[in-house]
Amino acid sequence: MASPHISILVLGAGELGTAVLKALAAHPQHSSITISLRAALIHSSNPAKAASFHELDILGISIIAGDIASMAEQKLANTFSSFDTLIGCTGMSHDAGTQLKIAHAVLVAKVRRYPPWQFGVDYDGIGRGSSQDLFTEQLDVRELLRHQKVTEWVIVSTGLFVSVLFEPSFGAVSEDRETVRALGNWEHKVTVTTPEDIGKVVADIVWAAPEVQGVVYTEGETVSYGRLAEILEMVWNRGLGKGERSVEMLNEEFTRNPGDGLNKCRVVFAQGKGVIWSEEVIFKRARGGLKLQGVED
Predict the structure, then answer these.
(1) Which of 57, 122, 125, 141 sees the fewest Cβ atoms within 10 Å?
(2) 251-271: b or e for each residue (b if 16 or more CB lie within 10 Å)?
(3) Contact indicator for 147, 103 with CB cutoff of 8 Å
(4) At what angle do helices 98-109 and 133-146 cross, to 10 degrees?
(5) 188-231: per-residue pLDDT in tens?
(6) What is the spatial distance between Cα 52 and Cα 17, in angstroms, rounded to a whole number?
(7) Residues 10, 33 contacting (CB under 8 angstroms)
(8) Residues paired with 88 in a beta bridge
(9) For residues 132 and 10, what is the distance between their CA atoms, to the nearest angstrom?
(10) DSSP state of 281
């Protein structure tokens, strides 16, 4: 039996958005896919941008112009109303309140299904009042979605991108790759997933798992900082220096520079709440399961 036609709008074509778009287009049950981008980006003379747009065209993905940051809620709703499903893949660079504005517009437009931009930690587990104010807005979005019956919603908790774990700005691996640091302590763990695997999970949920609703969890791997150090020494075939950044130390850094978004995130990960989940709650893909990539991969 043929799957029903579903029209999808994706917001954002960064690393995550691109991975989601490619997975949606590669899924055997896919139908109509559209990406919303700023007009200035669409008309850019940058050869790399032109090449990426050509790739989208080859995949059968349509492009429409839309500036999420500047558009009013009703104008966003007018755009969203043409689609059955909206997938949020942009947010880190937007002003406070943007995610709530998008969510309100989704409800006004009566979009049938909405996976919002919450591909990361378990905001419910972290709770309100954390060092990261963006997390509080994400909880506001969840509360809004839970108290309405217009739109079905799916939040896919994925942990960190695997690549972020190795970025010096995150704080676990030094810039010269000579030192590994534990955020909190060496027993603390962190869940990581690659953008490509996030895309595959999202595509399966959207195209093949209409029964999935609410908050679901996926992972490439959940690894302790101690195990991370062991893996890196094995893969890089050399000994590494080791250091520990305690919650107290990171809180002091946050107090000295409260506007630093990365400081806010490091405190959350050092505290260890809402950044890992147990095996029994992890979403199993609709087509029989998939081995997702971990740290060593």
Answers:
(1) 57
(2) bebbeeeeeeeebbbbbbbbb
(3) no
(4) 10
(5) 999 999 999 999 999 999 988 888 999 999 999 999 999 999 99
(6) 12
(7) yes
(8) 11
(9) 26
(10) G
Tokens of 94: 């937007």
Across 115-161, the runs of DSSP E, i.e. the strands, are 152-157, 160-161
CA neighbor of 192 nearest in space, from 168, 218, 211: 218
Q: What are phi and psi of 196, to 5 degrees?
A: -60, -40
Instruction: Determine the Cα–Cα distance for residues 183 and 251; give it in Å rounded to an integer.
Output: 11
Question: CB of 183 within 8 A of CB of 245?
Answer: yes
Q: Are 109 and 146 a contacting pair, CB within 8 Å?
A: no
- Distance between CA atoms of residues 291 and 247, nearest Å: 33
Token pair for 169: 């700005």
3-state secondary structure of 215: strand
Which of 207-216, 231-240, 249-258 has the highest average model confidence (pLDDT)? 231-240
Whole-angstrom Cα Rg for the chain: 20
Q: How many CB atoms lie within 10 A of CB 166?
A: 15
| pLDDT of residue 289 exceeding 60 | no
* pLDDT digits 0-9 by tens, 145-181: 999 999 999 999 999 999 999 999 999 999 999 999 9
